[in-house]
Amino acid sequence: MSKAKLEYIWLDGYFPTQNMRSKTKVEDNFSGKLEDCPIWSFDGSSTKQALGGSSDCLLKPVAIYPDPARNNGYLVMAEVLNADGTPHQTNSRATIDNENDEDFWFGFEQEYFIMDSKTELPLGFPVGGYPGPQGLYYCSVGGKNTHGRAIVERHADLCIEAGINFEGINQEVACGQWEFQIFAKGGKKAGDEIWIARYLLDRLCEEYNYYIEYHPKPIKGDWNGSGMHANFSNTLLRTCGSKEVYDKVCEAFRPVTKEHIDVYGEFNDERLTGKHETASINDFSYGVSDRGASIRIPIITVEKGYKGWLEDRRPASNADPYKVAARIIKTVNTVNVAVEA
């Protein structure tokens, strides 16, 4: 009889920034298939998702990946349900519209800082001081300016072994800051894979006595903050071939700027200042190849005759990808344009 370790991962009830929680269920002769993952439960009173007198919340498996760090292990992403089987109010995945979710493709660029648990500073920052100014860290090579490559490389390997559609890594503009990229067809799937990739990164850091800082502006002053840029497209954007359509889609975001910012991450006002490759949180703008705009129209999209995607640069590094995807889908779906075959 073989035994499998299923790590159930879910989001807790802290607001506005939820945390990942996980626990292990050991199953006999497990098939490795999602449909054979049982619904489980947990104590919601310990995660701000229930009261002590009625504390049981349910975990509904929604995605499964092999766990590359465990023998016969699996990573199970789960939605939180109420005891009656309805989505819990903290279940942001359930807010994504099912009707045309898979028509939307998302590429998330997850930035983050690697922090030393002893100093509580980013890697490369000396105690009581600062490293050299920004300029030489971005995509750098060599021990003087590159900090944390070993853990980043291991994380990439773990994600690829888990079957995540992991598309790349690079050191970012600030010292000790990195980024990974994930692409998926469907907002739900993209969100699942970002959360699993975050889980693998956080768990890996336990071995190094490091932790990952997802705060969008952990180092004040003349240092870049961290975002989770959302590249997105649907059939309209991929096939329209029209600058006018692209302008119409971008303009659809303008009247709902606040609604987007509300779900784009806590402390994002500290990052979206109009400096350090950001637009001001108080403005809305878009432009071709403009990293200082709210939404960037990639130059490749233009060169292909306006057949491609858009990049919303406003989501913070601590944003919930489910909420970001749900809001983008809702806004783009307000644009009613017929595309000729």
Automatic annotation (TrEMBL):
Residues 87-341 form the GS catalytic domain. GO terms for biological process: glutamine biosynthetic process. Keywords: ATP-binding, Cytoplasm, Ligase, Nucleotide-binding. It catalyses: L-glutamate + NH4(+) + ATP = L-glutamine + ADP + phosphate + H(+). One of its GO terms (molecular function) is glutamine synthetase activity. InterPro entries: Gln_synt_N (IPR008147), Gln_synt_N_sf (IPR036651), Gln_synth/guanido_kin_cat_dom (IPR014746), Gln_synth_cat_dom (IPR008146), Gln_synth_gly_rich_site (IPR027303), Gln_synth_N_conserv_site (IPR027302), Glutamine_Synthetase (IPR050292). It is an enzyme of class 6 (ligase). GO terms for cellular component: cytoplasm. Pfam families: Gln-synt_C, Gln-synt_N. Its EC number is 6.3.1.2. PROSITE patterns: GLNA_1, GLNA_ATP, GS_CATALYTIC. It is found in: Cytoplasm. PANTHER family: GLUTAMINE SYNTHETASE, GLUTAMINE SYNTHETASE 2 CYTOPLASMIC. Belongs to the glutamine synthetase family. Homooctamer and homotetramer. Catalyzes the ATP-dependent biosynthesis of glutamine from glutamate and ammonia. This is Glutamine synthetase. The lineage of its organism: Bacteria, Pseudomonadati, Bacteroidota, Flavobacteriia, Flavobacteriales.
